[in-house]
Amino acid sequence: MNGIQQIEITEKHFYPLHTFECGQCFRWREEGDKSYTGVAYGRVINARKNGDKLIINNAPAADYENIWKRYFDIERDYGKIKTALSFDKTLRTAMDYGWGIRILRQEFFECLISFIISANNNIPRIQGIIERFSQKYGEKIVYNGKRYHAFPDPFRLEGIEEGDLAFLKAGYRAKYIANAVKSFQKGEIIEEEIESMPLSLARKTLCGVSGVGPKVADCVLLFSFGRLGAFPVDVWVKRAMRDIYGLEEKKAAEGGAKLFGDLSGIAQQYLFYWKREGEA
DNA sequence: TGGCAGGGTCATA
DNA sequence: TATGACCCTGCC
To answer: What's the pLDDT tens digit per position in A163-203?
Structure first.
C-alpha cells in the first residue's frame, strides 16, 4: 500500500470530472486537485488526467489488466462513437460539453443496489446511504492513511432483513434492498444469465426484482453490463427529450431508441450530464 | 421555518 | 393506463 504502483495510458476521451460526476456512479470523490479517489471491486484507486494521459494510482499492472481496463471501458473507441452520434446537432453540443465521459463497468450487485436506492431520491442522500451500507458491511481498505470500505458482498449479508437496515435511513427502499440481497443469495438473479440475454429479456428479468422498474433496470444494464442500447429515462432525460425533440414523456424511451439505436445509452449519458448541469 | 423536489416504483382502480 | 403514496434530506 505504498501508492507507487501506477498505470499510465494514453486516452483522449476521458476526463475524471465528466466520468465520475455524470451521475453513473456514487463512490468517487474529488481530492481538490482534480484527481478522483474511488472504491470499486474491493480496491481503492485514484485517477487523474495529465494531458492525454490517464494516470491510475494504486493499480498494479495485473489489476489494470483484470479490472480497470474493463472498468474504464478502455477498449471501446469513443472517438468512433462520437462520430457515429454527431449526426445530431444537439448531441454534438452535449458531447462537446461532456467530452470526457466513459461508461463505467460497475459491479452488478453494487450497481443494482445503488440504483434501487436512487429512486425518487437526491444524490447527496444516495451517497450517504451507500456509504453507511458499505461502512457497516463492507471490507475495510486503507489507502494513503485513510479508511475506505468496499461495497458489501451479497453472500456476506446472510440473513439481512429490512429491520436490520433502519440505520441506512433509506426509508421505504430498505425492504427493496433486503429483497434484492435475498434474490442474489437464492440465485434468482444471476449475472452470467442476464449477460447473455437479449436486451428486452434482460430488462424484464431485472424488473422482476422488487424496487426495480424500467429506469433502474436500464441503469444497471448500461452501467454494469455495458449495454449501450439501454436508455434510462429519468426526469432529466424526459426534460431533454421534451425540450430538444418535442417528445412527450411517454415517448421518451421509444424516441431515444429510435434516434440513437445501439448507442442510445451513451447518447443518454451525454444528454443527461449536459442537461442536469444546466447548460441546456 | 416551511415546503417542495428529488436520477421511480408499487399498489390501486 | 393513470394516479397517489412513499422515507427522508437538501435546498431555497
So the answer is: 999 999 999 999 999 999 999 999 999 999 999 999 999 99
In contact, A267 and A85? CB cutoff 8 Å: yes
pLDDT at residue A3, rounded to an integer: 46
User: Can you tell me the mean pLDDT for A219-246?
Assistant: 94
Residue A94 pLDDT exceeds 90 = yes
Written as nine digits, the cell of A223 is: 452501467
Give the CA A203 to C1' B11 distance in Å: 21
Hey, which bits of chain A come out as E strands?
Answer: 6-10, 28-30, 36-40, 43-50, 53-57, 140-143, 146-149
Give the DSSP per-residue string, A104-125. ----HHHHHHHHHHHTT--HHH
pTM attached to this predicted model: 0.97
Q: Closest CA to C6 C1' — which residue?
A: A172
C-alpha cell recorded at residue A138 = 463492507
Q: Is it the case that residue A32 has pLDDT exceeding 60?
A: yes
Q: State the DSSP string of A16-62.
A: HHHHHSSSS-SSEEE-SSS-EEEEETTEEEEEEEETTEEEEET--HH
Query: Is A136 one of the annotated active-site residues of the chain?
Result: no
Q: Residue A79, SS3?
A: helix
* CA–CA gap between residue A257 and residue A229 (Å, rounded): 7
Nucleotides of B under 7 A from a protein CB: 5-11
User: Are A37 and A46 within 8 A, CB to CB?
Assistant: yes
The active-site residue out of A82, A215, A238, A275 is: A215
| Cα gap A250→A161, rounded to integer Å | 36
